[in-house]
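Hi U.,

Before I forget, here's the chain from the pilot set. I'm dumping it here mostly so it's searchable later in email.
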Amino acid sequence: MNKILLFALNDATFGIELTYVKEIIETGNIRPVPLAPSFVSGLLNHRGSFLTIIHLALLLGLSPGKVDQDSRIIILDDKEMDIGILVKKVMGTKTLDSPGGEEEPRTIANGDNPEFSKMALKGAEGIPDITILDSERLLRSVLEYNF
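Structure:
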C-alpha cells in the first residue's frame, strides 16, 4: 500500500487504498431501496448505470452525520461491480512509507465493525490520527448482500 485517499466521517479521518478508488463524485439524487440494510443509502444513476451507495459511517457503526455540500461519493472499483461509499468530506491523498514506524493496528472508536480497520497512523500534534480501512474486507462485506 503506497497511496491512500483521505476522507472524513463525522470528526474522524479515514483512508482507503487509492488503487481501489475509481472516481469521486458529488452526491446526487440517491433513491432509497426498500428492505435494504440500514447502511445502504440507495441507488444512484451514474452515467446510465445504477450504482449502490453505502453510507460508510453506518456500516462502521458510527453516527451518520449530515449529508451536505462537502459530502462526496467515492466509487470503489470491484471486479463484480462498482460500489459508491458516502463520506462527509474528501481531504486528499497521502503517500505511506514502508510498513512499520508510527503505524500500529487499531480498532475504530465507537464502531461495531472494527474488522474493517487495517491499521492506524498516529498523527503528530494538530494532525489527526488516520484509520486505514481494509478495502478488500469492506468490498467483500458489502457484496455479500447481493444487490
